[in-house]
Design a protein that fits this description.
single chain, alpha+beta, four-stranded antiparallel β-sheet, disordered N terminus, gibberellin 2-beta-dioxygenase activity, IPNS-like_sf, oxidoreductase
Amino acid sequence: MVVLTSTALEQITLPVAPKPNTYFSGTPVINLAQPGLETLLVKACEEFGFFKVTNHGIPVELMARLEAEVVKFFSLPQAEKDRAGTANPFGYGNKTIGRNGDIGWVEYLLLDVTSKSMSHTSLAFLQEPSASSLRSALNDYVSAMRKLVREILELMAEGLRIQPRDILSKLVMDEESDSMLRLNHYPPCPHLQGPDCSLTGFGEHTDPQIISVLRSNNTSGLQISLRDGSWVTVPPDQDSFFINVGDSLQVLTNGRFRSVKHRVLANGLKSRVSMIYFGGPTSGEKLAPLPLLMGEGEQSLYREFTWWEYKSSAYRTRLADNRLGQFKR
């Protein structure tokens, strides 16, 4: 595995380390093979904005194949990784996250996975023969993610008792929908001493999109913020997927669903690899609370705006900023 240079350590703020070997036991688990799960799913989105999906039908071999390709990529010499292009926003990033000063103990590959993605200049390296196995694994994984996202969003609509069933899923299934895949590598940090030492891998934030689907290896590090503001560590599960409610879904439900604030801590012992699929709407999609979810006399908490407007605004902010604040009524 690749280890980031020690100079980065001086620039990264050390958060309070969690207690060693303690995990949050309250993560909602949604078994997709379980009848009547729609009510449980809605409850999880209302209380946590976060849940784990099991019995999802995606082969473990497919997840493991992409992980192996991701590990292979991040194990390349630095010059080879740099050929993927500096993340702007798509491409390879190292320590710097975004354009506004956020940094972390992480290197990543951010990919545009819309129907036009393979022609994007920052992804030109994927067209090379040497990248054929990575390209194949990416295509298969993204195809599986689209199906999973559609299923989950349609189950949400059923749980919310709104029609048509694809009222939410159609926003991310359009050919021009703005979807991305982020591949993150949090290297072991040899400068930290002790198993309970941690530092910021990816700072606290919410996801701007409608929904996010995360899968990681069996290394811990993911934390979510509960409603009381406390941070808890989520136990890793490499065979399941973790779902985040995004800011856009919070708007569509007029705050009934809340986007979950989360972060990742790195440590000195194990390398963490994660793959996150972000399902977003088309650039011109207008975002506002769905009238079907508004009670009699209920006021909209947000003014109407387009996804492009919100995405552009999010890119101008720091990770921890309240991105939805300026869009409230």
